[in-house]
Write a structure and sequence with these properties.
With 617 residues, this protein is of the alpha/beta class. Among the domains are: 249-399, Rossmann fold (3-Layer(aba) Sandwich); 419-594, Glycogen Phosphorylase B (Rossmann fold, 3-Layer(aba) Sandwich), CATH 3.40.50. Helices cover 49% and strands 9% of the residues. It has helices spanning 9-25, 31-43, 47-60, 66-79, 83-96, 101-113, 117-128, 136-152, 156-169, 174-186, 201-207, 210-214, 220-234, 267-271, 273-278, 298-309, 322-331, 349-353, 442-454, 467-479, 495-501, 518-525, 542-550, 560-572, 574-587, 596-615; strands at 254-260, 284-290, 313-316, 336-339, 359-362, 377-380, 396-399, 430-433, 459-463, 487-490, 507-509, 530-533, 556-557.
């Protein structure tokens, strides 16, 4: 018998597609058959054909369920990157069934992606304001995404209102609780744990993010709990075999990789440029694995360009999934991978969880334990990470001799301004705190008001991130008898102007339990003394570490009463401030705190020891 050639697979597929299209265009194909046929095409990787099938059915079928097909077609067009056509398809679903919630939801996301935030919010509002009410799942989706977007737009009161509505509808929403607590921190809305709906006190605590908890408590056990909960809930199981074991044997110079999405005008990106620049290139090869977003702002671009110039290699991870990113790191033969982000916003802990490098170290981005499996080490000093803290950290310390923090000695500083430029009285004692508002607690703010009360005529110069925070601070001050003119609010300015204005203050008041880090370094670099309170966690001991390294340990207190007494005493004896400023002017920049070449050598010594030990395994 003669052999018969089977049709080529694509010919067979094309024939099957033609039959499906013909049936859809006939106007009699049942909806379930359409959905099954389209899904089969999608599963076979033939999305374009599936879209054409939907289009043919919609064009030729008079069905009360056309909105379902139009919606599915819109979702498919969106996955194919054909956003304008997807929008038209979703609108077609709404034309067929006005108020169809899924179409409004997806249109909201599509509008947000193209930057039309007003349209996105309008589509979502149509769902959660619908009468009769939409399905609970759809209402929550609309409320939560509206709140998320409003928070990014810094419309905090509106965002908080929607979060409260969402939690009143359903208490068991840890992600919403997390944003609810943190948005109250950003607004200085006290108490931070304001009851809402049926949410219990335990749910509020368990839903608090690690970053938020760092500003609420100096209990290291609670911070470890927050980190562990996140890892258990959000991260997949790590692979059985660490990725670095599958890479070629590491030889030659020790390869250091820095992992971050914050290598720009972010606290991490402001502290680290000289660290990257000063690495010994005869012994070390340095690579940035980075997903930092692009920015059109000149200062962002300049900072980013400087950082990338300091790297031997730059691997872009934006748009690269975590598994592929980890493989790229392993293939690069990285000996020491330094995580500069931890569990902060935009972090990608799943990369670290796959162990792409034999040595993985946490540094700067998260001043505390992350509980990320595979991150075994943390750069520290013996002040920020004392022995009593070690049981609450999954990482082991790599102790630097003087201070954990690197900084940048090449910062641009604008000319010294006049106090009048910022509304400061020329003859008053000026306390300041330029920390972000989410670090402010009612306990510390109350202490600041008592300090103002104890130093007649003094003022407190603060950063106000938003109008709500400002109003809440003024209201809290009034309850303690502090006139509004004694709080002076600083606008955000360019980095060089921000540094210059430290010279106008007399004393910086640190926050607790979330100490100043970069801000404390900036103040000391500009010759401004700081009073701090040190607690039981890494983050509540940062400023104390800097003060020890700069030679001013007497400005570190260990309880609120001593903090207040010291600040009031200094405010009443300005000659002591003159002495501290003279000391910083003469010795501060030559102190171990700002001896960057030595700090980098100390870091390299720790990395080299671990890398060589790993190579010898």
């Amino acid at each position: 018998m003669d052999s018969v050639l089977a049709p080529a697979p694509n010919v067979a597929a094309d024939a099957a597609d033609a039959l499906l299209l013909k049936a859809a265009a006939g106007g009699a194909m049942p909806l379930p058959e359409l959905l099954d046929g389209a899904q089969a095409l999608q599963n076979a990787g033939r999305g374009d054909q599936a879209e054409r099938l939907y289009a043919a059915w919609i064009a030729h079928t008079d069905s009360p369920h056309r909105h379902v097909a139009a919606f599915n077609r819109g979702a498919l067009l969106s996955t194919l990157g054909r956003e304008a056509e997807a929008e038209a398809a979703y609108q077609g679903a709404l034309d067929a069934v006005p108020g169809f919630a899924p179409a409004h939801l997806n249109l909201g996301h599509l509008c947000e992606r193209r930057g039309d935030t007003a349209a996105a919010l309008a589509h979502w509002r149509a769902v959660f304001d619908a009468q009769p009410p939409a399905m609970l799942e759809h209402r929550l989706h609309a409320l939560n995404n509206s709140a998320r977007l409003l928070e990014t737009l810094r419309r905090y009161p509106e965002a908080e209102t929607l979060m409260r509505t969402s939690l009143e509808l359903k208490a068991e929403q840890n992600d919403v609780i997390q944003h609810y607590v943190h948005i109250r921190q950003k607004q200085c809305a006290w108490p931070h744990y304001l009851p809402v709906g049926a949410v219990t006190e335990n749910q509020l605590l368990m839903g608090t993010s690690l970053l938020a908890s760092m500003g609420l408590t100096d209990d290291p056990a609670l911070q470890l709990l927050a980190a562990t909960r996140f890892v258990q809930e959000k991260l997949p199981k790590p692979p059985a075999m660490p990725l670095y074991t599958l890479a070629p044997k590491r030889t030659g110079r020790i390869r250091i990789g820095y992992l971050s999405g914050d290598l720009h005008m972010h606290a991490v990106g402001l502290l680290t440029p000289e660290l990257f620049e000063l690495h010994d290139r005869e012994r070390f090869e340095v690579t940035a694995f980075c997903w930092t977003p692009e920015s059109a702002q000149p200062e962002f671009r300049r900072q980013r360009e400087r950082i990338l110039r300091a790297m031997d290699h730059h691997v872009k991870l934006a748009g690269v999934d975590d598994v592929t990113a980890a493989r790229l790191i392993a293939q690069a033969g990285i000996d020491v991978l330094v995580d500069l982000q931890g569990l902060t916003s935009g972090a990608r802990p799943h990369i670290l969880q796959q162990r792409p490098a034999p040595v993985q170290v946490s540094y700067l981005g998260l001043p505390g334990t992350s509980a990320i499996p595979g991150v075994e080490w943390m750069l520290a000093d013996r002040f920020v990470m004392p022995p009593e803290l070690l049981p609450y950290c999954t990482e082991k310390p790599l102790y630097l001799p003087h201070c954990y923090q690197v900084s940048d000695r090449k910062r641009d500083v604008a000319p010294r301004p006049a106090r009048s430029k910022y509304g400061l009285p020329d003859d008053a004692f000026v306390f300041c705190s330029f920390n972000n508002n989410h670090k402010f607690t009612p306990e510390m703010f109350g202490a600041w008001m008592r300090i103002l009360g104890g130093v007649p005529g003094s003022v407190l110069w603060l950063l106000a991130d938003n109008d709500t925070a400002r109003a809440n601070m003024l209201a809290a001050a009034a309850t303690q008898g502090i006139a509004p003119e004694r709080l002076v609010f600083a606008p955000r300015v360019a980095p060089s102007e921000y540094l210059a204005r430290f010279q106008l203050a007399d004393l910086m008041l640190d926050t607790f339990p979330f100490n100043a880090g970069t801000t404390a370094s900036d103040a000391l670099w500009m010759g401004l003394p700081i009073v701090t309170r040190a607690g039981r966690t890494y983050i509540s001991r940062m400023a104390g570490s800097l003060l020890h390294a700069v030679g001013l340990p007497d400005l570190v207190t260990e309880n609120l009463a001593d903090y207040e007494r010291l600040a009031i005493a200094l405010g009443r004896t300005p000659q002591r401030i003159v002495s501290y400023k003279r000391f910083l002017a003469e010795h501060g920049r030559s102190s171990p705190l700002f001896d960057l070449p030595q700090i980098v050598r100390d870091i390299e010594a720790e990395f080299e020891k671990l890398a060589l030990a790993a190579r010898g395994r």
